[in-house]
Structure formats: structure tokens, C-alpha cells
Amino acid sequence: MLTMTASASSSRGRTIGRWTTAALVFGITTRSWMFLRDPPVWHDEAAMLVNVLEKGFAQLLGPLEYAEAAPPLFSWAERAMARFVGTGPFALRLIPFLASIAALLLVLPLTRQLRDSWTALIAVGLAAASSALTLFSVEAKPYAIDIFVATALPCAYFATAAWPLSRRLSLLSAAAPACIWLSYPGVFVVAAMLTAFALDCWTVRTTPAWTWWTTAAMVAGGAVLLLVIGPVRAQRTLDLESNWIRGFPNYSAPGSIPAWAVRQTIGIVDYCFRPIGGILLLPALVGVGAMWTRARATVVITLGGPIVLAFGAALVHAYPYAGSRVMAFALPGLAIFVAEGIGCVVHSIPPLRRAAVSAMLVAIVLAPPAVLAAHDVVRGWRRPDTAGAAAYVRRANGQGDRIASGHWEYRYYLHDIEPPTIDLTRQAMPRAPRVWLLVHGSTPAERQGFARGLAAAQWRVDHTHEFDGVSVVLLRAVDGS
Questions:
Q1: Are strands 402-405 and 422-423 parallel, antiparallel or unpaired?
Q2: Among 409, 405, 410, 450, which Cα is nearest to 429's?
Q3: Domain membership of residue 432 as a residue range
Q4: I need a labelling partner for 113 at 20 to 30 A (CA). Which of 208, 330, 456, 473 fits?
Q5: Torsions phi, psi of 140, nearest 5?
Q6: Residue 286 sits in the same domain as residue 371
Q7: How many domains does the chain have?
Q8: Quick one: 341 and 443 in the same domain?
């Protein structure tokens, strides 16, 4: 009887292992396919790339155009890619793509902290099918790096558990400045790591341990101080804060703050695990409680601590706490907590029904995001075809022509064309015999109507070429000059 039970358990373990591997393959495949598909650069991504291409390394420490904010090491890495590899989307998206793949793979060793090995499939599956993590893998923005840092540091903490404490803290001292300057949420992740190590130092209660911890804390604190008085202060503009407003509590209405906190927390879980993410907050909370009660406080601190610290930063209006990309770094911790919580639910069920219930819960949790991810692979993301429109203008642009648009995607795509593209959000229409106007809008009629209104009496519409979401309109000066 014992042999049969052990054989059944071993068979189930192999099955779960195969499904977990399949989830990893699915995640890597979807990210690779979307990366190779080369979707058009979009609004916010283009703003980052304009800064990378038009500013030097020192300038990237200061204010950025279009209310952009990016950690210095990420900006420098992108600038280096542009100088030494290329300025195309493949080159400039390569670092986030690799970070996304690495973050997904690192979720697997984190699942060793789960009570039940079968729940590893849930954690890995949620990360693999996450539409947010897939999006960030093909976007030249730092959010995939944020998730990587939030996954890599806890992984290193648990992987080095057998090392002497002094050696582990020296490793943190070396890694902390890079993580903090590579990822703004890295500040929260490093602070959570220091908190976990403080518990370890309290356990051993030796002077050398606290000396190493103090050294690591001072190194991290110095890196944070330099970051705050430099890039953070320079990049935090009124325009940027206006985009963050819903991520901060409204102290003029104190009674709204608890509802704000609940609503934003649900939004964060939903953003990470669409389309059913919001309801996964309940098993995540169960998982946090279960880990804490079974003496896994360091798991809760290293994975949940950054989320709590971000919430605290939002209370003082220092960092937005909202269901958006700025909180995407919460994804690995939430995946682990959800998996642990679902495992607890299954444990409350009679043993004979656990296998069936666990299989049903895995399907309920993973099927919707997997279907959404598959849909994105097949259909792609609906974006204006900025790449196609820019390529058309590049081919047709003639001597003396000017290019104008109210969308800065074309400052990126046409950055090497002289004279530079006119940004109509900041400049007036140029005086030239011919002007290539790139207009975005829902329908061709809407876009062409805008172009005709802009042309007024100075230009006439020569011809129009349509792309998905974009009209390329050639305006010819009425007086020929």
C-alpha cells in the first residue's frame, strides 16, 4: 500500500514538473514571439527613446523630456546600446527582453519556499502568462528590470542561506547600489532585504554580524541619497506628478483613504494577472498569513516587504501606489503568495478530493491569463502603425521637405533625418514648400479632417496615405514657398 502511494506521489510529481516546464516554455515562447514580431514603438516608449538618443550620459541624470523618469543605470545601458549596437527597436528592447526572461526563470527557484511543491505550477504559470510581463519584454522601458530586481535579490537571499552571514551581507553591499540605480523600486527591494538580514543578525546576535549589516545599510543608504538628490529630484516634475495623482491618498478627504488603499491594492493584483487578477488578492492574503504562521517571515519580508514600503512611500507622496506599471515589481511576490494561498485552500479539503480540486483551481487561475496571452500572440497589440508610417515618409521625403507630427514616436523613428521632425505639441507648423504631416486618430476621416484644419489657407492637401491608426498627409504650400 505504501509502495503504491509513493508511486502515485512520484508520478504526480513528474506530471506537475512537466506542466511547470511547459509553463516556462510558454512564457519564453510568447515573449520571444512578441519580441521578434517587432511591434511599433508606442507613445511612452518613444518618449524614453527620444531622451536616450538625444541626450548624453551626463544629461540623462537630469530632467528628461516628455515627463519621463528612468533610473540612471537603465538610461545609460540604453544609451550604450544605441551607440555601440544600434538604434533600432531590436537593439533598444534587448535588455528589457532578457530581463523579462530572466525574471520568469527566477520565479522557479522562489517556489522552493512554498509548502506544497505542486503549487509551483501556479506561481510559474501566473508569471509566464502575465500580460504585463510579456508587454514589458518588448518595451524599451525599465519595468522588466524592476521585476527582475524584485525576483533576483530574494532568489539570491534564499540561495545563499547556507553561507556565512558576513559573506551574504558583503554580497548585498556590492549589489545594492547597482540595483538601486538600475531600478527605482529597487530601493524598496533592498530595504526589504536589509530587514530580512536584520532578523538573521538578531538570531545570531554577534557584533561582527551587525557590523556587516550596518555596512550594507550605509552603502545602500548612500546610493539612495545620491539618487534622490540627483536624478529623482531632477526628473520629478509637475507633469510627472499629474500622471501619478491617483497613486497618492487624498488627505483633503481623510475618510477616503482606506477605500483608496483597498482599491489600489486590488488594482495592483489585477494589473499583474489580468484578466482575473483582482480576485486573486484573497488567496494572496491567505498565503501571506500562512507563511507568517509557519515561521517563513523572511519570505513575507523579502517578497511582500517592497509592496508595503511602496505603500508607505505613497502615503508621503514619494512613489505612486496604483494598479499600473510602476507597481509591476510586485508581480513575483504576489505570484508566490497566491500559490501558497491556493495550497492552503486545498489543504482544508478532505484528502480524497484534493487532487481533483487542485487541478480545478489550477485551471481556473491559469486558463484566463493563458488565453489572453495566446490572444496577444495571435492578434498582437492594437497600436498605430508608427513604424510603417515613418518608413513611408523616410522613402518619400525629398529635398527641402519638412516633417511634422504631434506624436513623438516620429522623433525616434526619424531621428537621423535633417532637418529634425517638428513636434507640433511644442512648435508651430514649419514654413516649407512641402510638409509631411503624420496624424493619429480613430478613423481616416477624423485624421484627414484634422490635417485639413491644420492646413488652413497656407497649404493644400496633395495626397494622403493610410496606415493602421495613422494618416500620412502631404501638404503643399499654396504659394509654392
A1: parallel
A2: 405
A3: 386-477
A4: 208
A5: -80, 65
A6: yes
A7: 2
A8: no
